[in-house]
Amino acid sequence: MLVRAESYVSAMSDSNRIFHSHFHQAEPGSYRPSTFADPANSFHEKAALCRAAENTCYFATANFASDGSPTTSAVVKPDGTLLSYQPYGQEGLIIADIDLSAATGCWRGGVDIPESQCGSDYLLDLE
Fold this sequence. Notes:
The chain is α+β, with helices and mostly antiparallel strands. It folds into 2 domains: 1-12 and 105-127, no CATH class; 17-97, no CATH class. It is built from 1 helix and 8 strands.
């Protein structure tokens, strides 16, 4: 299967971080999460973990603190693991130390793209 490399490059080729702001308000009687990325939570949190890993970059997602919000603010490492998150429904500030050398931005869908070609428009053979 041939795909365009640019379809794997959602972050700019020299980007080592992505910022995602959003407003996800609770609906009356809806599920209220208490732990980040719990299987019962919204898919949005798992998507943040995936976006960081597939782009090998830091991913910061910021939500408004509202009572019962189904998502929260978080910082995810380039390997797709959680670095820090804000407790649900609480106002606050996340301060996280990040190692920009860990964010290469050159790993896409199991294909290790040479850094010299990261962000270039060429075809990848995924088979």
